[in-house]
Amino acid sequence: MKNSKINYSIIDIISALLILLFVYAAVSKLLDYQKFRVQLGQSPLLTSFASWMAWLVPAIEIIVSLLLVFSNTRLFALYASFTLMVMFSGYIIAITRFSDYIPCSCGGVLQKMSWNQHLVFNIIFVLIALTGILIHNKTKNETPSFRTKLNG
Fold first, then answer.
1. The total number of structural domains that make up the chain
2. HSE of 74 in the Cβ direction (CA atoms, 13 Å)?
3. Are 68 and 81 in contact (CB under 8 A)?
4. In this predicted structure, which of 10-14, 47-51, 64-68, 73-77 has the lowest mean pLDDT?
5. How far apart are CA 67 and CA 15, in angstroms?
6. What is the pTM of this model?
7. pLDDT tens digits for 10-40?
8. In-domain check, residue 44
9. Which of 88, 87, 108, 101 is nearest to 36 (CA)?
10. Are 138 and 20 in contact (CB under 8 A)?
């Protein structure tokens, strides 16, 4: 039982870190929406999708953040966080490997990072989200069911 409490605390910390990241990123993008939209439009991979991506990305970041708050949606949100961070990392890899011009559409502190630093940062958050998923699944499998408690 003690391990379960520790695991739930770790999941809470991981969720808080992801919420902080996604809310910060979304708010930064929305506060400087025009710049974010223009930079997306300059991306060779996203030019034709820039107008709706400029709203969709921050909206998804906020939705995932809200889902991370509640324990009944947390596992789904951890998977969504993992997927987003893998996609953002894949975008960085693609843009740095296959494009001559590399606009940074990140906001706030993140735009001060080099592309390599940003990739490392993203990979760390991929691993953080993956850790949350693994611990959540392990804890869920270890927690005795109601029936087991009655018979136990």
1. 1
2. 24
3. yes
4. 47-51
5. 10
6. 0.84
7. 999 999 999 999 999 999 889 988 888 888 7
8. yes
9. 108
10. no
